[in-house]
Specification:
2 copies of one chain form a homodimer. By secondary structure, the first copy, chain A, is α/β, with parallel strands linked by helices. Chain A has 15 helices and 9 strands. The first copy, chain A, folds into 2 domains: 172 residues, Rossmann fold (3-Layer(aba) Sandwich), CATH 3.40.50; 203 residues, Dehydroquinate synthase-like, alpha domain. The first copy, chain A, has a 6-stranded parallel beta sheet with strand order 2-9-6-5-3-4, sandwiched between helices.
Chain lengths: 393, 393
């Protein structure tokens, strides 16, 4: 087990109608002026935004509005948000929406008190000394950004979309409001992408070289088994509260790092997926269902028994003691089947990507090696993209 | 799943040598004057207290000293601590020791800014509006107080020792430092009591009437399985870092409520155990190993399948589909065997309690019914004490 610091001081409100208390929650945290940040029309049409405004006004919390966040959020809106926050001396960025809205809010929050360009925090090296707090009302179970220090932003640099992530303590939300009912209206494909993303957040932590991490392994497997149970259920009954609730809380647990405190984590699949979603503007979760199994297949020989354990403990595969690699492979196949059955893409073609683009994707990725479970060089990365491209459904 | 609020803003530092950074950790949280609160001679003799002082002084953090906390901590030292904190305008109570020291620190912290008697917060009804923050360096894996809102204090009222608990958000520590090496020197019996207490914190949450709580059930079972694995290991190899580390982190997880957010919890066994440890001054964990199996046996008919699941998923018992109550009983037996093998008491005699005292214990407990899984009246409580008294090893 590694030494660690775990500090996730987020105030979580989970369950039915919790969003209607957002005004009181702001009051509790001494917040009186916020930037209300959201995406497209759905939070408006559903009446959610109006309810949020009502609750804020009743609690004496004033707000400025900034809508228009798109999936794979862009830098231009971040700059606009920073301007508004500074002009009106706002005290918190309140995101109402999914992971993209929250990530945009986090970038605004770190850029507001900073003299330079917020993008400095995404190019590596620079750490924000302070940031506005962020709060959120989450409308899709996926990114886990509501409990994490993660933030991913897209910027066009020299005509190429650059997708970059940051992980700072100052980006951990002050409060997060999670009502599973708000996720009922998420369309099937986005629901499946979100559920896959949640599983991948656990998998990035589960495959580790750190020894003696039993207690956290148990937590990881427990969350993964829950997802295996809930995945087909949510596709069949999108309005089942308990299913949506289990997935939503699993999504928070999957990424607030309680499942990864004690270990070296991998994150190669997430880094490589960024090249896919930046280049093709595909959903992050869909990019992952194509790429993560390819990564698993490529790195599996590094620790066959770890993959066998995954297969047995998460999918109930039978252990083949003579040929553990068969069990290991069965686990990867079971994962692909789970995702494929939910209508998720399992290869480049289904994702809308092209094998002929692989050299470009590798080039865009740059020279940095990736991953920790296995350190991947450029050739390895090309091989993983190639496995993902050639997969049959 | 129930609606919930989960807010545990504790800054955890876990691992080797972390206690040597306590000064910097105080600085990080803008603390410059603390009450250094501890128990008996072991933190002095081991040199731990000196290292803590050194770290504080190096970081420019001044301190007052208050030692002498005993197991089942008493109110007299709490009053003394409150006086010192007020006199010197101290900003944080830093507990160095086990759960008793931390609970004493929490009581001092809530009493310091309060005009009335701190005991008001333990008699029910009164909620502290504010409290000093507490920090801790934990030397035994047991109470989980380092991540919880719990605080238990003893006071002599009309010649009888009253043991009372409180659960307030203001009692959640600001920071907690956990170095598994500091627990190497905990004697075997106290080690076993602590490990049992950890398991009981999970069990109080696991046995619930709330439906659809799969994800948290998975986490509970994962932590319990870890404890089943680690319990005999720590008794055999008390200096094995990884074993001590797994138990220590499991102890925090067991009681910071991540394993109970979504459900009605029980807590009858803890409440009834308080009568044992108040009357006989026995270790809390030892009282629990006598009482909790008796509670389990008494309430088992209420939900046989829940107990069968516990037996199968935690102890690997074989499911008897024709007679699930046999499986349920096998789980309770397995738990008692685990504890008995570690040298823990399994009945009144081994604990040093007397069956003839049961009427007095029931009377001391008062007229309040207890528990939620099954609501226990006075007669039920008497029956549970009687089962515990009559158990064979």
């Amino acid at each position: 087990m590694q030494n660690f610091n775990f500090y996730r001081p987020t105030d979580f409100y989970f369950g039915k109608d919790q969003e209607n208390h957002v005004g009181e929650i702001c009051q509790k945290h001494h917040i009186s002026k916020v930037l209300l940040h959201f995406g497209g029309g759905s939070v408006v049409k559903s009446g959610l935004l109006d309810r949020v405004k009502d609750s804020l006004l009743k609690a004496g919390v004033s707000f400025e509005l900034l809508g228009g966040v798109k999936p794979n959020p862009r830098d231009d809106l971040v700059y606009e948000g920073i301007k508004i926050c500074r002009e009106h001396k706002l005290e918190l960025v309140l995101a109402v929406g999914g992971g993209s809205v929250l990530d945009s809010a986090k970038a605004i929050a770190m850029g507001t008190p900073y003299d330079g360009d917020f993008w400095d925090f995404f190019m590596g090296g620079k750490v924000p000394k302070t940031a506005l707090p962020v709060g959120c009302i989450v409308t899709i179970a996926a990114a886990g950004s509501e409990g994490s220090n993660s933030c991913v932003i897209n910027k066009v640099v020299d005509g190429v979309v650059k997708k970059k992530g940051s992980n700072f303590q100052t980006s951990v939300p002050l409060f997060s409001i999670l009502n599973p009912e708000l996720t009922y209206s998420v369309p099937p494909f986005q629901t499946a992408c979100g559920a896959a993303d949640i599983m991948c957040h656990v998998l990035e932590r589960y495959f580790t070289n750190t020894k003696d991490v039993l207690v956290t392994d148990e937590l990881c497997e427990g969350v993964l088994r829950t997802m295996v149970t809930m995945f087909p259920r949510v596709m069949k009954n999108p309005h089942d509260y308990e299913t949506r609730a289990a997935i939503m809380w699993a999504g928070t647990l999957a990424h607030n790092n309680i499942l990864g405190v004690d270990r070296e984590q991998d994150w190669a699949s997430h880094r490589l997926e960024m090249e896919l979603s930046a280049y093709y503007d595909v959903a992050h979760g869909a990019g992952l269902t194509v790429l993560m199994p390819a990564w698993m297949e490529f790195v599996m020989p590094h620790n066959v028994m770890r993959f066998a354990r995954f297969a047995v403990n998460v999918f109930g595969c039978e252990m083949d003691y003579e040929h553990p690699e068969k069990t290991a492979k069965a686990g990867i196949s079971a994962l692909r089947k789970l995702w494929g059955d939910a209508g998720l893409p399992l290869n480049f073609e289904e994702l809308g990507a092209k094998a002929s683009d692989i050299p470009l994707l590798v080039k865009n990725h740059g020279d940095n090696p990736e991953g920790h479970f296995v350190l991947l060089n450029k050739e390895d990365i090309e091989k993983i993209f190639t496995i993902a491209a050639n997969y049959q459904h």
